[in-house]
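During the first year of the project, the team set up a workflow for recording each protein of interest as an amino acid sequence followed immediately by a discrete structure-token representation. This format lets reviewers and collaborators read both layers of information side by side without switching files. As required by the reporting guidelines, we include two representative entries from the current panel. The first entry is reproduced here exactly as it appears in our internal archive.
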Amino acid sequence: MSRESEWIEAILRGELPHDVEFQEGSRPNHVVVNWVVVGPDDAPRRNAPFVIVVDPEAIDRYDSSNGEEKARIEARVCEIVGHRRRNYDPKGPVDVATPFVVQLDEGDL
């Protein structure tokens, strides 16, 4: 598991479905987020592609922060991801060329 995957998992574990999995993406700072949804035929399947792109400087900032700043950054990450997820349909098509992407830049924190 990449540094980015571990960081995102630690922050978002309680914010997403209980069976969520965080995996390395095709690029080092991409985290693929998977969980099970019920498809149109009532059979379980994985969610539509969902990727979080993490700025490594955001993790560096988090790691060098005190406890209060870390809590603020965690809350901000949850807010950004939660806000973007409002436009995401996990039951959407799985075989799309472009995943739903949430960008986490250090400047946004």
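The second entry, processed by the same pipeline in the following quarter, appears below.
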Amino acid sequence: MALKKGREQATLKEYNAALERAAEAPPPLAVAAGECEFLRAHALSRLRDAWTARFPDGDAVTLRGAGEARQPGLSDLTAELSGGSLFARDKLVIVRQAERVLFPAGGKSAGDAAAASAREKAFLDRIAHPSPRTWLVLETAQLPGNRTLGKAIAAGASVIPCPLPAQRELPAFLAARAGEAGRRIEPQAAELLIRAHGADPGALAREVDKLALFAPEGAAIDVPSVETFLTGTIEFDIFQFTNAVEAKDRREAVRYARRIAGQGTRDQKGRREDGGKSAHKVLFMLSSSAELLLRAGTARAAGRGAEDFSAAAGLSPWRGEKLYAAAAKFSLRELRRMVECAAEQMRRSHDTGGDAALSLELMAVRFTGGLAEGTF
């Protein structure tokens, strides 16, 4: 499979198919390339396990493009791929962050350029005529298609695309992850995890792994088990808050808005944020939900079904049907006003430093029909 170009986006289905082919019959050269770090790591683990099962007495070597006292270069990689003696053992060479090894920075002089060209030529000759007992797997975020070396690798490799999963693909991703652990996850439970943790495949996979570990033998991962794990967390409160808004349950919406403002969230480094920052994040989520509800309401008014709406919005069937049903509780006028209010409160909170926690509570009341038109 060639690397996709421009706006073409590989899918999880293509990732799984390419990975299974490479694991079933290890190719001389495989490349796990794409934006999703989790999928790249998953592919390396799967390929290494498959290769080790096939060649239990072989050697597996890992080179890292960063984090080592001495960064390996292209000549080091070429040497690792050398077939050695007639009695050499089978060898798997894995290169992490391969772009740093293949395309190192620097080398401006004519002498450096000539040396780099010689190293590239030696490496290309090695992968064009691989040893029958050596396999190479490259892991990289991007394989430059405008470089001679990148083009040659892509042309001769078994490429495993590692894209960031689309929202609609996440339920299937979680089902596959649960299957790897010998479990089944119910669609509603998968959606709850997705809404709680977003589209981060690494975080989602870790949650499924934990749930699979603690679930009773033979039991599926269901909504109650997910709720047990999430209860008391900001993710669960956010989930309950958006559910209450979509159900027009004013009391619950206000209760969870206050909990969110008081609890706060953690930033990407795990540090506790104040409630205002937490509320601002939920304002953004609520704005997105309002836009989806308006799209669902417009679809209903046009006579389109939940399935058509889900496909057009890029949502999973379960989430799309839920929004489609929730939209029936609002008039189109209410939904349009909801979107306008959300956008206005986002602007105030962002541009003027307005009280995001107060805005969140007022929006909860307004969206559930508790304030007269024109309050915002």
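For the second entry, the following points were noted during internal review. Residues 264-275, 371-376 have pLDDT under 50 and may be disordered. The chain has three domains: 12-161, 167-230, 234-367. Both points are flagged for discussion at the upcoming steering committee meeting.
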